[in-house]
């Protein structure tokens, strides 16, 4: 017995030694460097260099086993300077040719106009615990492909970074605007051979939370930057943001008017004299998935280029920007007032903003469509943390219906006794569903505390009324209503017996979008109460005759 206790004690000490290290990080970037260069001939180069040491099997097998590089071979050239794995004992395993696999990016699937895009999958070989992945590659863009040197580069990764280097290079006679959001580091400057450079070096960069979407996506990027927890490098050679937007505006074309007008006539047959009905018909066309496919290619991956609205109609799919262009084009062809709203990351200095800071585009309409969610409105829910302008730089306020709004749902649930869970004779259990708008917040409240700010994707004001019709001869076991209120919002559950069963009213309000370590406990309390399955479960019993 004494020996067993000793073994248990030793195992406990080993777990205490090992678990914190594993919890701290799956891997560590020894070095991560990103260099953006504008050459004298107008071509551009983005160079990425990384050294990444793996600590866990998850890092080795899934998280970092591959690197994905998207580029456009018509205008860009991918150069892999070095790719190898340095194993724990120092053995170097060079990446073989058959581990460099070129595929179609998943975002361009079912989108022939973007099938020219390529994604290089670098499969890292020779991996083991303690091994270090070394990768050094460049993407060189032809002169004229990109309208300016325009960078919005988030700093944090899923694993900590011991040393992060960010560098800008350009001809000495070029003017560049730049800033580092949410950090105070200043660049070292140098000038040589007609080129000038700005170099920032950050030490011991902490990882971003898993709860956020990938930093590659603009939504996750703006959430972390706006919450003050995500350092982001912004730089551009545009004279100002208005000039950048005017360049983008030139891409928003209706195209062939005959095609646009034909589609409009098809959608508005019999309702042309009713502007609200016309707007609703266009909105329905834009939001019905089986009519128009959604292409995930970003504005940046498309080289800030759009196909005209008529081509989107012909092909029946489009990128987010193309679908917004189509929506606005159809509304304008119908004589309705509509414009493109540009939602972008908010820098400290307006002149530092470029096209790469754009988070979302929204079709801003003077007429509210009924019961539809428009393209880009999820991101538009963050508008209080962003700049919102038209395509000429004029400040806009998005219509109220584009932001978070109160939702109320009423439905009826008829309980089938034969399909009901019955834990004991004469008793049954009825479980009510949990709505998707609330479930999206669960990943943001996975822990009891947070080390730094987080920004929720939206606020919530959700009420669900469910009329539960119980089988004849059954009624709900008595239970009390419940309510919890705090500075973040409110959660409430009401159970009112009815003639045929019970009416359950469930309410959740989350009013605070920016969560800090000090107020987060209130959000956690609300969501913990909402997630308690007992609140969504009814115990019913047969009535004694």
UniProtKB/TrEMBL annotation:
Name of the protein this chain belongs to: DUF3857 domain-containing protein
Source organism per UniProt: Bacteroides mediterraneensis
Domain of life: Bacteria
Pfam families: DUF3857 (PF12969), DUF3858 (PF12970)
Domain (DUF3857) ranges: 40-208
Domain DUF3858: 444-539
